[in-house]
Amino acid sequence: MSGSDRDLVLALRSELAAIDPSRPCDRRAEAVALADVGAARDGPLARLLLRLARERAAVRAGAGAPAAGRIASFDWASAADHCRLAWLRGFFLAHGSLSLSGGRTHLEFLVSPADTAVLAGWLGQVDLPASWRIRRGRGVVTWKNGDLVGTFLRRIGATGALLEVEARQVSRALRGDLNRVINAESANLHRAVGAAGRQMAAIDELTASGELAEQPYVVRSVAEARRETPEATLAELAERLGIQRSTAQRALERIERLALAPDDRDRRTRRPGRPPSQGAGGRHESARFGRPLA
């Protein structure tokens, strides 16, 4: 994570660790989650351990110090919802980690392998389904969904720091969407410029050879409009000429095809004695490209 992301995670942990439950049962539930912690990993956790030192000592004296990462000492089934949330808050501070690297939200708990499925099941009971696996002999319960992580952090008491996390996520999402739109527009522009360049070259070639004058009226009209407005889109050319966009596109494709393959033109529809503008059956070829233009 970047320095700013680490600072934000530390601020969020500090906010959670500063919560001082008013209910004795909540304080005990949080102390149960922290009972196996020997040394604090950071300042917020150290201050929380100091504040709950009496409750932790009582838990240790009553049930003995649980093994690292073990959750069996907490009676989840009979605990009230507020006690469950207090326990989850303490368990996250003791055994959880949060990463915001690269705009991706990742929260995981490290537990004993025997407790992995149990913890995942408890989280599912409070509508926070999590995935789990065994990694290098340790159980890992994971969320990679930013919405689930946000819901969890909000329910265990995060407010101000979580708003900053969500604001950054929204900002990154907007920047990503904007970059995708800009890249798509840039690609479309490059394609349009390339196509217009090819069309202009084809029009010049056919004009020089006199072949453009032999083409149907619509083809000549589209060629003239393209020559006058090289930057215009197909839709703009069609609107200017009062024809369909597909008609303008077919006309330009015909021009490019004739310029690229002058010896391979479609002469099968021509008959001796008929003007080039008429096709098979005596129909005017401009009918293939839309209605005649006035």
Report on the structure:
The protein has 294 residues and is α+β, with helices and mostly antiparallel strands. It folds into 2 domains: 3-158, Homing endonucleases (Endonuclease I-creI), CATH 3.10.28.10; 186-263, no CATH class. 56% of the residues lie in helices and 7% in strands. It contains 11 helices and 4 strands. The chain has helices at residues 3-17, 24-33, 43-51, 53-63, 81-95, 116-125, 146-155, 160-209, 217-228, 234-241, 245-260, and strands at residues 96-99, 106-111, 131-135, 138-143. Strands 1-2-4-3 form a 4-stranded antiparallel β-sheet. α2 packs across α4 (53-63), α9 (217-228) packs across α10 and α10 (234-241) crosses α11. The protein is rod-shaped, with a radius of gyration of 36 Å. Mean pLDDT is 80; it is low at 64-69 and 265-294.
Layout: helices, strands, pairs:
Elements: H1 3-17, H2 24-33, H3 43-51, H4 53-63, H5 81-95, E1 96-99, E2 106-111, H6 116-125, E3 131-135, E4 138-143, H7 146-155, H8 160-209, H9 217-228, H10 234-241, H11 245-260
Antiparallel strand pairs: 1-2, 2-4, 3-4
